[in-house]
Amino acid sequence: MELSIQKIEALIRLSTIVMLVLTACLIGLDSQTKVIFYVQKKASFKDLRALVGLLYITSLAAAYNLLQLCCSSFSASYKGTSLQSYAYLAWLRYILDQAVVYAVFAGNLAALEHSFLVLTGEENFQWLKWCNKYTRFCTQIGGSLLCGFVASLLMFSIASISAFNLFRQYSPTKFMHLKL
Fold first, then answer.
1. Half-sphere exposure of 39 toward its Cβ, with a 13 Å CA cutoff?
2. Torsion of the alpha carbons at 98, 46, 32 and 61, rounded to the nearest 10
3. pLDDT 10s digits, 12-54
4. Is residue 174 part of a domain?
5. Which of 16, 22, 50, 163 could be cross-linked to 111 through a Cys-Cys bond (beta carbons 3.0 to 4.6 Å apart)?
């Protein structure tokens, strides 16, 4: 069962990396130029600060998951003897997995809110609707947000597996004692 959980976690991490890289590429390569009244106007992800933040967050999350994938493949070939050190590493992985899930989900929500304002506009602040002029730009941002939320769900499952791997090391009868 141990090996199958590791394989499932590796497969989910690989899928997460693909979705995060796809999100970052869709955001980073998105721009559209239109001629409006003989003036060229360009819409880019750099115009929306939440998208710039999401680009950085998804890139760092993909790098973190790649690092964890490499570490887990290395640890699968090397079995440590100290159960105590493995517990510390399991705690570290659990906390980092939780932090990355929350960061990516929060970044996606911030970008979604900013994109919603771009979609609908806001008369009180004199913000114009962009999506009636830059349709391809808005469609591509919508696709990147969808990929980002799928990556968040995948990372939630990784965090659940990480929690399972952590708490199965402890005794069910003695509070916070490792199994021997």
1. 2
2. -20
3. 999 999 999 999 999 888 766 666 677 777 777 777 888 899 9
4. no
5. 50
